[in-house]
Design brief:
About 40% of the residues lie in helices and about 15% in strands. The protein is α/β, with parallel strands linked by helices.
């Protein structure tokens, strides 16, 4: 699949995770007003909703809070277990519906879906088999198509599925299989450069071969030294984050400048959302990192 020569527009944003936010409520996380104040102060204009319930769920209030800071919402995020079959799809919809309603009401165009982790990211406990059966894989792909069509038809949102460490969609082989087995009209891909590298993938290669499936990026980098230790010792993702496996750009891999250049060459608008995984973290740590990261990214695209 060839890219389009015309230069597309890159919209850089950030997300609550870059402020150490992984959960709707956690006393170790910064309060949401501080996140909004600081993400605007850092110079970002676009943000994600983050875990539903962290930011205000009253859409009128959320709109006012964003507008007052010059911020715009680009996506909501959900976590689903579609591989468990139709009964799980119904349960997933109950989780997806309020997020999609909120995201659309505040102007977002995307819904990011993270498949369920087979190992708990907080405790490290293995909660199910690492490999899907043939039936479970079919449930995952057909369920993703079902969800993509539904959020598109009801809310006008584009579903982008997010390959993620410690999920069943975490390696180049599994991503390739997922893309081949799903309908492009219903399901897009959120390419997280850090998670894809974590699983052994090359984000630049994926953009070149499957750019038409990628309209949404999460920008992060891995520390190759820490990653080697993590993989060799089968360290859970949550613990790996605490050890610094996701590092501040531009100190890690993959190099983000060629990734952004390739994304621009697709000729379409692409959201590129910074996600600096560092849960938990001290309240004073995120803002300086966010400011430095934005300066680096702007130097690549301006």
């Amino acid at each position: 699949m060839s890219s389009i020569p015309a230069q597309g527009r890159i919209r850089i944003g950030s997300a609550p995770v870059s402020w150490g936010v992984w959960f709707a409520e956690d006393p170790r996380q910064v309060p949401w007003p501080r996140f909004l104040d600081e993400v605007a102060r850092a110079g970002y204009e676009w943000i994600e909703l983050g875990p539903y319930g962290y930011l205000p769920t009253d859409t009128a209030r959320l709109s006012r809070e964003l507008l007052g800071r010059g911020l715009h919402l680009c996506a909501g995020t959900v976590f689903t277990s579609l591989h468990h079959g139709p009964a799980a799809w119904d349960h997933a919809w109950e989780q997806v519906r309020p997020v999609a309603e909120c995201a659309r009401a505040v102007g977002a165009r995307y819904l990011v879906d993270v498949p369920a982790l087979w190992r708990d990211d907080k405790t490290g406990q293995i909660v199910e088999a690492r490999q899907l059966t043939t039936e479970q894989w079919r449930n995952l792909t057909s369920g993703s198509e079902w969800l993509g069509r539904r959020v598109r038809d009801i809310y006008g949102l584009q579903l982008v599925v997010h390959p993620h460490a410690d999920t069943h969609l975490d390696t180049p082989a599994s991503v390739r299989r997922f893309l081949d087995d799903t309908d492009a009209d219903s399901v897009g891909l959120c390419l997280d450069t850090g998670h894809y590298a974590y699983g052994g993938g090359d984000a630049l290669d994926l953009i070149k071969t499957d750019g038409d499936r990628i309209g949404y990026l999460h920008l992060k980098q891995v520390d190759p030294v820490v990653l080697t230790e993590v993989i060799e010792n089968d360290v859970p993702f949550g613990t790996a984050v605490q050890r610094g496996v996701m590092c501040e750009p531009p100190t890690g891999l993959p190099a983000l400048e060629p990734v952004l250049t390739a994304a621009r060459s697709l000729g379409s608008e692409v959201f590129a959302i910074v996600e600096q995984d560092m849960y938990p973290c001290t309240p004073t740590r995120p803002l300086p990192i966010a400011q430095r990261t934005l300066a680096v990214l702007r130097s690549f695209i301006e």
